[in-house]
Structure formats: C-alpha cells, structure tokens
C-alpha cells in the first residue's frame, strides 16, 4: 500500500504545479527546486514544432530559459533524443545522420520544449526514355522507310528533321525517302529530348557486302571465339544462335560454348546474312563428326584390299561442300566390271541418280557418323 500511495502522491504533485512546455509532453523531474524557478524553455530562433533536414544537415539548438519573477538560475538543461540513428546531438547542435524521424527535447526544471526532426529520403529523379526504332540505316536511291519514335516505350509523334534533305527527306510521320547518294542524320525531338538515326544512301548499283570469319568454329565446353565482321558501309550488326543451349553469341559477336552439340550463328546486317557453324565438345569422346567414304559398289569389307577408305572430320548440320573437305572422285575402279564412277551415296545400292549425295545441299543432320558409298556402274 505504501508504494501505491507514493505513486498517487507524486502524480498529484506534478498536476498541481501546472508546469508548461513549448509543444512537448511534460516529463517528471525529481529536482523540485529547479522546477520552482523555471517559467518556460524554448529553442532560440525556432518557432515551429517540426522541421525537415537533409541528410548531413545540422541545426543549432540553443535553449532559451525564462525564469519566474524574482527567480534566477542557472538551470542545467537536460536533453532527450528519441532516435539517435536519425539525429545526433552534440554541443547544442542536431545533425541528420539517417532517414526517418526523431524528436529532440530540452528540459529545464518542469518546462520542456520539443522539436520533431524528419529526414526524408531524396526522391528518385524521374527518368524518361526517348528512342527511335532504328539508329543506323542504309538505303538505295528511291527507297522509303518509316522510322518510329518511342517515349517511355510508347509510340509518339515527335518533330522530325533531316540534316541533309538532298540526301534523304523525312515527313512528319517519320517516313524517310532516299533521294541521292550520301549521308544524313534523321533527328527527332520530343519534350526536350532528342534521338537520331544515321542514314546512308548508296550509289546506284552498289551492293552491301558482309564478311564474317571464321566460318567454322570448334570449341570445348566453356571456350569462346570472337567473330570478326567487316562491312562495305556502316551498319548495325545482329547476332543470333540457332541453339542457345549449346552456344550463345553476344551483341559484339563473342561465341561461348555451353554444352556438347552444334549450333549455327547467324550474322545479319542490312538484310544480308552470313552463317558460322559451331561444334561444341566436352573434350570427352569424338569432337566432330567423322565421315567414312567407301569406294566399293556392294562389298564393304574393310579388310579387302579393293576397298578404298577415306576418313576425315566433318561438322554436322551443313552441306559437306561448306567444310572444304569434299573428297576427290576415285580414278581406280574397285571392280573392272563396273568401271564408271557415278557419284557418292548414303546407300550401298541405289535405284536412281536421285539417291546420289548432293555435296552442295545434303547435310549430315545430328548423326556423328555417316557412311558414303562410291557408286560404280557398267558401261
């Protein structure tokens, strides 16, 4: 009962004294002698109860104490800070060190003044994009082409300009017309943003040339190969892989081997395409397709001296002619009864010349080993 009585008595005492504040909650004090002499306290030069600070910014907080009539100090102020991760207090100064909110209080006697300080995160600048559907184009004289403009990926109608209207003109809808050989810059302006497309108009009869090397690539898993690309005029080069699980190609033409298999890399510019054939191996087992050529008509006993055998590596998924390994036609017949060499076939016995292997077009597919037979006929 004694503890309860003390609590009620103390609470009643503070209520009866009628202490004041400049905008905060009156805290309990144990030094009643100081409370008796202080009329009020406030921050010098600060009238508001709330304030915003930028990260790293400081504000001077100097307590200004007013004493009751006939009373004098000094009274030592007591400081309170509800969030030291947002604001630090040092030598009558508050500094913003983190984002959030803190309430700083100064207490003198039974008087208190509070200031709520808020440190806001800076707003992220709003970023907009403005771009054209093309940044580089080549035309023949008389060609027309529409360039489209996009603001934040939404189609818009900007102002269009051509730096050399005698070379190519552009309408308000972005329709470009190639007029004469030369170069010009097609520009678009929208909401103080600009974008452009470099345009080349070819001489009449000029053909665009795209050259790529190497054309054949053998890599082990994890290996890379940089392609070399040259063009007869400035052009945007595009790269793609027919099988990205086997090999990928970057925007700069770097091939990366991922797993066993084959892929075709397509290199394109101005409507012209070239192809690079890629074979990937883990380093275990056969790396490329091996092709055996049998020059016998219907006897393929490898122990027979009359059988002619040729063996070499051949990349899959493309005509044999592109590998540069087309075998020479045999000059010696394995059987005098069939002296005329007709051609190669994947069949040992053929029904017609339609069964002959087309070196320029037929491909090995996904098989690792292909047997080609030399077909001989009688006179």
């Amino acid at each position: 009962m004694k503890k309860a009585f003390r609590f009620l008595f103390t609470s009643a005492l503070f209520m009866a004294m009628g202490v004041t504040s400049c905008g905060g909650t009156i805290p309990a004090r144990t030094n009643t002698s100081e409370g008796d002499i202080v009329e009020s306290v406030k921050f010098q030069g600060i009238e508001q109860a709330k304030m915003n600070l930028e990260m790293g910014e400081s504000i001077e907080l100097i307590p200004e104490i007013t004493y009751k009539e006939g009373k004098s100090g000094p009274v030592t102020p007591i400081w309170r800070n509800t969030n030291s991760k947002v604001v630090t207090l040092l030598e009558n100064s508050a500094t913003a060190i983190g984002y959030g909110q803190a309430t700083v209080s100064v207490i003198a006697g039974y008087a208190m003044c509070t200031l709520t300080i808020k440190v806001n995160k800076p707003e992220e600048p709003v970023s907009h994009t403005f771009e054209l559907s093309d940044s580089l184009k080549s035309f023949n004289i008389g060609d027309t082409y529409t360039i489209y403009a996009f603001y934040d990926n939404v189609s818009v109608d900007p102002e269009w300009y051509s730096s050399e209207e005698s070379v190519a003109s552009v309408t308000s809808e972005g329709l470009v017309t190639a007029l004469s050989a030369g170069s010009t810059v097609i520009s678009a302006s929208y909401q103080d943003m600009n974008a452009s497309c470099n345009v080349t108009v070819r001489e009449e009869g000029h053909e665009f040339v795209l050259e790529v090397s190497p054309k054949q690539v053998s890599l082990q898993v994890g290996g890379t190969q940089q392609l070399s690309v040259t063009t007869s005029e400035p052009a945007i080069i595009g790269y793609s892989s027919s099988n990205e699980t086997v090999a990928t190609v970057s925007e700069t033409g770097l091939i990366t081997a991922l797993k066993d298999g084959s892929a075709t890399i397509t290199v394109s510019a101005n409507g012209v395409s070239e192809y690079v054939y890629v074979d990937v191996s883990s380093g275990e087992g056969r790396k490329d397709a091996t092709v055996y050529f049998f020059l016998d008509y219907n006897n393929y006993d490898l122990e027979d001296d009359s059988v002619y055998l040729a063996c070499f590596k051949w990349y899959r998924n493309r005509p044999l002619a592109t590998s540069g390994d087309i075998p020479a036609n045999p000059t010696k017949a394995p059987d005098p009864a069939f002296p005329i060499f007709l051609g190669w076939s994947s069949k040992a016995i053929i029904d017609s010349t339609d069964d002959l292997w087309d070196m320029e077009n037929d491909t090995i597919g996904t098989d690792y080993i292909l047997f080609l037979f030399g077909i001989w006929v009688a006179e």
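The longest helix spans residues 2-17. The CA atoms of residues 92 and 166 lie 72 Å apart.
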